[in-house]
Amino acid sequence: MLLIKSFSKSYGSKKAVDDLSLHIHKGEIFGFIGHNGAGKTTTLKACCGILKPDAGIITVDGVSIAEHPIECKRMMAYLPDNPDLYEFMTGIRFLNFISDIYDIPADIRRERIDKYAELFELKGDLAQPISSYSHGMKQKLAIISALIHDPKLILMDEPFVGLDPKASHILKGIMRDICDAGGAIFFSTHVLEVAEKLCDKVAIIKGGRLIKCGTMDDVRGDASLESVFLELEG
Amino acid sequence: MFKALLKKQFLEVFSFIFIDKRKGKARSAGEAVLIGLLYVLVYCMVIGSFYVTARGLCEPLVTAGMSWLYFALFAISALFFGIMGSSFSTYNSLYVAKDNEMLFSMPVKPRTVLNSRLVSVYLMSLLYSSLMFIPAIIAYLGMVKPGFLGMFLLILTPVVLAFFVTALSCLLGWLISLIAPRIKSKSIVTVIISLLFAGVYYFFSFRLSSILSSILAAPALIANALKTKVYPLYLLGMGASGDIVKFLLFALICIGSAALVYSIIASGFSKSVIGGGSASHSRNKALYSEKDIHLGSSSSALFKKELLRFTSSPNYMMNANLGLVFMVGIAVLLFIKGGELRKLLIDADIFGGDMLALIACAAVCMISSMNVTTASSVSLEGKHIWIAHSLPIEPKAALLAKLKLHLALITPPLALLLAAVLTAFRFSAALSVLICIVSVLCVLFLALFGLAVNLKWANLHWTNEVIPIKQSLPTFLALFSGFGLLLLLLGLYLLLSKLVQPLEYLCIAAGLLTIGCLLLYKLITGWGSKRFAELD
Questions:
Q1: Same domain for B308 and B221?
Q2: Which of B101, B223, B237, B424 has the fewest CB atoms within 10 Å of its CB?
Q3: What ipTM goes with this model?
Q4: What pLDDT sits at residue B280?
Q5: Min Cα separation B293/chain A (Å)
Q6: CB proximity A10 to B under 8 Å
Q7: Alpha-carbon distance A219 to nearest alpha carbon in chain B (angstroms)
Q8: Domain check: are B263 and B344 in the same one?
């Protein structure tokens, strides 16, 4: 679903990501773990076409993001680490805006907005301006907007930050459902327990370089993910 | 406690001296001194400009034994300035201060917080009202040499008057706090009120000399009217002229009204700031209904987003589009007085033949160039740029939505202005069509130019939206590009004036502007799209 081949990106003289290669298959929840500044966000942004790679190829379902960004973006959704949404819009206006961009028919958008807004208990606040939302509410709205066009691939940067336990639980369920339906999730997290329970595969990145990648069992062996991570991080 | 709050209040008010808000960093001591001196200089310059008016009024009124009327007239202006300058800042600092929650979570009495804020409101009121009163005092001292008591009362007058200004500002701020939660389109209401204030200010500024002449023509009549209808103004005037009893009475009125307003505000302050905020929020909470779903194309969605961004910000509306107000104002004026102006220009034979058409066209273009919506539209994406980048839209589509907004905003006033110009001056059909074409092309060229310079010098890392809107290089360049373009076209006309007639020159200008527009459009859709996609 998502293929990252020899991806490198530098900011000035600092190499943020160096020769990273990953393959996220359909049906997989793929966790991306690393310390702050390891290169997780840079990788996710490059995957969704926000950042241009210095080197390497990134493809979504066989389509190059560099050559066909619109086609790729139609297949996926991106959830940033900080949900900076248009504060001058109400929640429902924002969802309509996203739906218009993805050309979602009225009946489908109504059904999905109802479904997800009810699931995340945001329906009553959809008519409110986003500027009045709490961080958690913005995060929920960003999640709904990411799900509204039924993407095949979702890239998420720290998706559980700011969510209450119930919303976190619901999101985990949705992530699993998407993958069971043939989609894929590539997400970064610092919460190793979540990664351990949720992910089919995991990659650990340090200083922009991939230091471990594989199925959860391959990576952690008999130990916990936390101890493996701490050991690898040195 | 009070001292600490007061110190915080002063630091907040004068933070512009110590902190560079564009960079979000502290200024060096030298820079801070320089900025401080610059503001003092500007303040002195404004005082100097009012001094000229004060001199004109002082001599005849003092000579006629009506010193009190002189001070009363300046007190009216000081009240206007004081209230205009401080009522919105009073509302913001009293009721919607960002540190409310932090302060109320600490062991601080609400009244102590209120008192510290009121001191800064008082100082702001004094600062604004002194703009009018200081020149009045200086001009007065140039003519009259009061004794110690007279001097003392004269200096105390603006100090006491500022209590009344504070009372009125607080009252207005309190009323705004009651009304604001019930207003749906706050930004638009803010723009309308600001325009009203500006309108009143410009009305009086333009009519100042005729107002002064009317006052000086019949001072006794005005004095009598003021004395009978606004007695406190008479007390102020007499007090400032040295009558201690009347001064004390005036001081009693000012300080008494301030005390009364204080008691009204203090009784519901903590409720308005904390309790009332959430209560009013839930009371006015709009409920979502399924009707709220509207279908649209991706380009109309992008345009609506730009429109919402625009209407959500009074700063954006006011600063980037003040020209629209002038366009409508001038159009209305031309519809009313256009005939007279035409007669005047034709009778005076100032512009021969079709030259008037060129001048009219240049004037329309010049006024239109005051609209610079596109010049900050890219920078205003700010931290939200990731949304445009991650959505399946061509960067070109996002840029064209910004261009469309600029054109959609300017088209109705431009049409009105052109209709007014053409009605007023009755040019030939060919000239009329060419004036319209050149004006439209000029507007399009300047909109494209604004977008191009904003793409080149985009700043997405602002902390306050005023920075990209008002204090950025793209806005500066876009504002002056209108003048530049007209100078270029004027220069070209001077070169060609012996070879071509105005009608032919308008054709040439239209051709050149079309080429300019096409080149800029190509630049924006090519280089600009790439640049927009790479902005971070």
A1: no
A2: B101
A3: 0.86
A4: 45
A5: 7
A6: no
A7: 31
A8: no
Which segments of chain A have a pLDDT < 70?
233-234
Two structure tokens written together for B406: 């600029």
Give the three-class secondary structure for B483: helix
Chain A residues touching B309 at Cβ < 8 A: 86, 88
How confident is the model at residue B146, as a pLDDT? 86
CA distance B181 to chain A (A): 13
Q: Do B287 and A124 touch (CB under 8 A)?
A: yes
Q: Contacts of residue A69 in chain B, CB cutoff 8 Å?
A: 392
Q: Which residues of B are less than 8 Å from A113 in CB distance?
A: 293
Q: Which residues have C-beta within 8 Å of that of residue B183, sequence separation ≥ 6?
A: B189
Q: Does the pLDDT at position B526 exceed 90?
A: yes
Alpha carbon B204 to its chain centroid, in Å, reads: 16
E strand spans, A49-128: 55-60, 63-64, 76-79
Instruction: State the total domains in chain B.
Output: 2
CB contact under 8 A, B386 and A80: yes
Q: How confident is the model at residue B527 (pLDDT cuts 50, 70, 90)?
A: very high
Domain that includes residue B88, residue range = 2-281
Most B CBs within 10 Å, among A97, A156, A157, to test the B interface: A97
Residue A121 backbone dihedrals phi, psi, to 5 degrees? 55, 45
Domain end among B232, B254, B281 = B281
Contact by Cβ (8 Å): B364, B440: no
**Is A84 in CB contact (< 8 Å) with chain B?**
yes
**Region at B196 (left for phi over 0; alpha for psi -120 to 50; beta for the rest):** alpha
Q: What percent of chain B has pLDDT over 70?
A: 94
**Beta strands A201-206 and A29-34: pairing type?**
parallel
> Residue B195: exposed, middle, or buried by beta-carbon count in 10 A (0-12, 13-18, 19+)?
middle
Beta strands across the sheet bearing A14-24: A14-24, A2-11, A55-60, A63-64
Assigned domain for B399 exists: yes
Chain A: give the shortest CA distance to residue B376, in Å.
17
Total domains, chain A? 1
Q: B109 pLDDT band (50/70/90 cuts)?
A: confident
